[in-house]
Amino acid sequence: MNHKFSQTSLKMTANNEEEILARPILHSLQAGSENRNISKQFVRSFNFWIRCPKDARKTFIEIGDGFQELFVVSDDILDETILRRGIPAAHLVYGIALSVQATIHRGILLLQNLLCCAGDSKDDTLDDLIKLGIKFCTGQGLEIYYRNTEKCPTFDDFRVIMHNKSTETLIWAVQILNLCAKNEKIDFSADLCEKIGQFQQIYDDYINLHNPKYAAVRVFCDDLDEGKFSYPIIHGVQSHPDDHRLLDMLKKRPLDVESKKLFVDILESFGSFEHTRKVLKELKDGIFDDVDKMNMGKNPYLERVLQNVFGNLETEIYYDGCD
């Protein structure tokens, strides 16, 4: 048979393709901004030293935001999330297949945009992104392993996860800003990035379980629904190895509200939240010490983020990094 197709019948417009494949991600964005503004604020504070031009910085930040948006959809699938800020998770609306395809499609587009912006540094940029991808997937995989095997990681295990997920992402974001630095490229202290990566992850773990304002914009203690071994929970389990209540309750996820309140009360009685606040203060002091050692001058933006976080920890106000 001799089929004839018009030029228009062969084409689906790029805009239409983009809209179809973007639906799961756009749906997830309806739930509101993630608690990743803290991460963004930390990255932007580094630009006080780097001095990346405004237009280039805006482009790189948009690319970074795009990666975070696709990670939200991916994370919800991996964590078997039912609700995101009160609305059904994207994969429950559009299915796992389309949601996964949407994240792959978005990731490739973002990579294309990033390499276009990288200019002569394309090879190094691609190499850095591949290394980040390996590290991030390793951290994510380990987190899933401990959740699925119901085995509580040690603090050392947790630090490996934090390094691969939080610290390496921060280092990569700073490297991207460095591509367009007005000054000479800055080789930031690995210790400084490590402490900031740990700080933002432990802070997120803390407010998920202990901050009423956070619960008002998210599902109450949703880390418990995921069966996640967050920092306060690891402390609670490790500090009281003969008390199996926390582990037993995590196995029964998702938990009802009353069970979650009991879980939080147990952590409080174990001193897990007090211990977490202490660790956050030690990390904050360590960050300031590392900044002083760099001899690059004080960074008022970094100081403001840290002071806002601590001021709000003391008053139990949820600070998401938005000014």
UniProtKB/TrEMBL annotation:
Name of the protein in its database record: Geranylgeranyl pyrophosphate synthase
Highest taxon listed in the record's lineage: Eukaryota
SUPFAM superfamilies xref list: Terpenoid synthases
Family listed: Belongs to the FPP/GGPP synthase family.
Record flagged with keyword Zinc: no
Organism of origin: Zophobas morio
Gene Ontology terms for molecular function: metal ion binding; prenyltransferase activity
PANTHER family from the UniProt entry: GERANYLGERANYL PYROPHOSPHATE SYNTHASE
GO BP term, pick one: pheromone biosynthetic process
Keywords, ordered alphabetically: Magnesium, Metal-binding, Transferase
Pfam families assigned to the protein according to its UniProt record, in alphabetical order: polyprenyl_synt
UniProt KW Magnesium keyword: yes
